[in-house]
What does this fold into?
Amino acid sequence: MKSHELRGRFAVVLSALLIFTGSNCAMQARAEQPGGADSQGGPRETVASVVAPEPVRPKLAPKPVVTTGDSSSQRILRAASQVRGARIMVSIKQRQLWLINNRDTLLVAPVAVGMGKDFEFNGKKFHFSTPTGRRKVLTKSESPVWTVPEWHYMERAANNDHDLYYLKAAEKYKLEDGTSIEVRGNDVGRVNQFGNFWAFEPGLEIMYDNKVFVPPVTTKQRRVPDALGPFKLDMGEGYLIHGTHPYNENSIGDAVSHGCVRMDNFDLERLYYMVEPG
It folds into this structure.
């Protein structure tokens, strides 16, 4: 047990001003590019399109808790201030997190929050924001794996003007170049003209013939390591406090997530060892 581990009651308080939550946060996944087979009969190496990282921004200075905002925000802030023991408060407006125990502030850190935007695809509607209210830390875990939600594939299809295709267990889908995509057990892969099977790397979209292929939830290709950083605190209903991936580590301080509260990995590690579920 870490010497600075905090015990006792742990409450999460959210409001329009002081908001805490996480939700189905997405990393900026790399895109699988359509390709055929090489002269040896194997699939050509697919190239991930990677955007050059932004310049590292200076560390954001901590901000004090403020009481600006609507009456609901102020009411929840007052209620949070009366809670005994430990609680986390997150401000969507200030994009900052506080860990407070009684009257002592133990940690202040900048965060990324929900983008606050609507998204619609094939009649399905989503709103990507960090919700207001009060939650508890249900569980926490190290080295979390992100199970990619359906809306992630919908976004990729919309951004590339592609159709969406849902793969099924044991299915073999024929591609225009004569190769095929197959689901074999808990793997999704590509099979060349000679019957050789290569599993797709988790974290790469499967995009061929103007389609985005959605792997079954039970397959490895639907579960992405490293997307959530080294730790996560689970608030239920898909809402998390989690860390960053190398592709979004410069997003802290912005409204860019799909609802989760995203922290710098160093700050997240400090928070992780200072709180307990419940």
Q: What stands out?
A: The two ends are 18 Å apart (CA to CA). The chain has a mean pLDDT of 80. The longest strand covers residues 104-114. DSSP finds three helices and 21 strands in the chain.
